[in-house]
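The aim of this short unit is practical: by the end, you should be able to scan a pair of folded records and say something sensible about each. We start with the first protein, listed as its amino acid sequence and then its structure tokens.
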Amino acid sequence: MTGSVSGAASILGSWQICHNVCLGLIALLGILGITVVGMPLLFLTEIAVPIWLVAVGLLLVTAYLYIKKKCISNRLLMLNSGLIIAGVPFQPLQKFSIFFWIVGGVIAATGVVLFIQDKRHAKRCKHEKN
């Protein structure tokens, strides 16, 4: 649960993703007949760094639990790490944002693919036993 929360919170660290969420919200409201001018989620850009830092903190707690208890999927930990890397919100690092997106995206995608493979393998083994 903590890993999922940290992964979800890490998405909020990227202004571009936040902007797309705003545009999607405006489009959805437009379909419903509600007109919105501006960016209704603009306030998230002001709190992006604190939210991202909370996400990193939750990721560290999740990693600690994984190391000590092995009670969390390492694949989901990999996914969350990738999302946090992709969502680095610091202004001085924005010129490297494409690098962060690529590295974080590859790590996150690898985590998803490995997670799905593990689930398919476990399902296959379960059917073979029956």
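Turning to the second protein, read its sequence before its tokens, just as you did above.
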Amino acid sequence: MGSRAAREAVVLWALAFAAIVLTRAIGPISGYAKAVAAVAFLYLPGLVVWKRNEDYRDYGAHLRRWRSDLALGLGVSAAVLPLFVLGFFGFVELLQNQGRRVAGMLAPYRGAPEIALRLPDRFPAHVVDQFLVVALPEELFYRGYMQARLRDAWPGGKRFLGAQLGAAFWVTQILFAVGHLGEFHPWRLGVFFPALLFGWLREKSGSIVPGTIFHALSNLTVLVLEASFFGPR
């Protein structure tokens, strides 16, 4: 059971990753990579769940405790995102003191920042996109399906702030980070660090709802910071 569960999860991850890489590599359709990722993250585990006659609710996709899940997601966002904003200031300052090659490995930003509070263009569309096209499919696939299946393979772990974190937790977040290299830039591996909180929220609550909220709000915060420092893109 254990090795089969781990193999299944890794094979589905590899299929999703391959689909994203191939889409990006084919010029005429490279702009659809995000849509392909969303479909893969929803369809691949959905097919497995359907074949086994299981329920997505067993993988954290439920609203059984939506009030407490909403409160947890918003509470963690309120506690962490202000610290992230402060860290972004320091990170941009660090970039200005690096050579172009090193800076290009650390972030996609070019030029000196011109700081003024700005929203990215089409911000309402970004809100819908980040919640429904990015955060929800990724949380369903990684923290919902993959983290659960790897936990079947490797149960146990140590308790940390009310959540049991073991090998399944760590491998899920590593694969989440590597999965972002479908567009190959070293700085994309930085998603490993917020993924630790996404995974903890899943184990803490038993639901993907808090992680989806925090994930989407984190991405939106980055978009606002990028627009405020480097102009709308």
